[in-house]
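re: the backbone from monday

yeah here it is again, tokenized this time
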């Protein structure tokens, strides 16, 4: 099946189509904006703006809507696939600062700071978007293959 690819986020052309899909999913779930806003602790106005294509939900909370709407989805790399539509979320932070905004500061791992470092990594992973997690997975997978081929 050929997927239709959309990119949604700040100033993206596909936001309006995404909003229409978003509204259709809510209607199919037989939910009002009020019910959605109450269950997800969001304003009705925010739901309306998403449905109009003027706002896009944060990628890390999109699954809450899909679960509430009982919509099946899968994540393929850094894209959300719903039926025949593949959706990529762009980031306001990346849009404002560019892809190279993230800098990694190396540190020496000792038994004393290993647990603290791991805790910080896990905390950061819980905030990561799907694209970042996919890139990290691929990087770790590459490193694993390199270590086994030596």
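seq for it, each position gets an aa:
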């Amino acid at each position: 099946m050929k997927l239709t690819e959309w990119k949604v986020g700040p100033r993206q052309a596909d936001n309006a189509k995404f909003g229409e899909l978003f509204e259709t999913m809510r209607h199919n779930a037989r939910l009002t904006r009020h019910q959605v806003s109450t269950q997800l602790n969001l304003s009705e106005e925010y739901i309306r703006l998403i449905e109009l294509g003027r706002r896009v939900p944060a990628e890390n909370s999109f699954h809450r809507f899909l679960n509430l709407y009982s919509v099946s989805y899968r994540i393929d790399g850094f894209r959300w696939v719903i039926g025949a539509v593949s959706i990529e979320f762009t980031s306001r932070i990346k849009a404002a600062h560019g892809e190279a905004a993230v800098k990694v500061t190396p540190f020496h791992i000792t038994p004393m700071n290993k647990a603290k470092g791991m805790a910080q990594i896990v905390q950061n992973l819980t905030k990561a978007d799907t694209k970042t997690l996919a890139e990290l997975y691929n990087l770790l997978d590459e490193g694993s293959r390199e270590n086994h081929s030596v």
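Helices lie at 15-28, 33-40, 44-51, 59-68, 92-97, 111-125, 130-149. The beta strands are 4-8, 74-76, 79-82, 85-89.
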